[in-house]
Amino acid sequence: MNPSVIRRGYANLDSGQLHFREAGNPEKPTLLLLHQAPSSGEMYEKMMVELASEFHLLAPDLPGFGQSDGLGNAPIDGDTITSWADVIAGFCAEFTSSIIGVFGHHTGATVATELLYRHPQFNARLMLSGPTLLNKMLKEILPEKARAFPETKDGLHLLGMWQRMAQKDFAAPLDIVLRETSLGLAMGSRYPDAYQAVIEHDYRKAISAIRQPVLMFAGTADPLYSVLDEAFECVQQGVKTEIAAGTSWVCDLNPNAVCQLIRRFMVAEVAEGSKVEWCSES
Question: What is the pTM of this model?
């Protein structure tokens, strides 16, 4: 097996089919990677290639994202962080019960936290890039930033979504902007629902209850960097750091720095009740 080759497949769950990417040897320790909205597991491909010789990696598309089925009329509540976390728990059970680490970025950080909060059988370390302890200002501006673009014959909805994605990081490569634009457009009228799910989620309650060690960081150019300190105050034990100049696409654009943090954290001794700060990664 070439551990750098990313394999793709579908898990058949009660909620529908869940598309996922997989890399590394399944006999190695498993890391779960959860993506931001409106992205997919594709945002982790560079990191998966880099880490595949050390870990077994699973990067599912959350329900309704990428190539995964939406929840629709499945026997589970609609698009909420809780329902997504429960679906991912079922997905993980299809592969292994011995996940040692769960990594999430933005929306994925919310789902990752809720996953370990609701399903403590996954006694995994938690790694969060851009934790979503939204303050009042973010909750007020997020709905407008996440509004759907109704389809129009003149194609202005295409331009609107493109500009939204490009504004996240004007220096980002065009292939990333195109990928995220396509994924956002594919969500159609459901696009705002993902962000509303994050707004309505009681993140403080979930993160405060996590007993496993937590790695919490954000890029200094990430809009969620502003809430990093307050979010870390809720953690029982863990490590806080930052990635210099990292943006909302830090996992795509700074994969080496993120992977180095994962490696370091997964072997670090984190004493019960201790909270430490590491120097900034670049």
Answer: 0.96
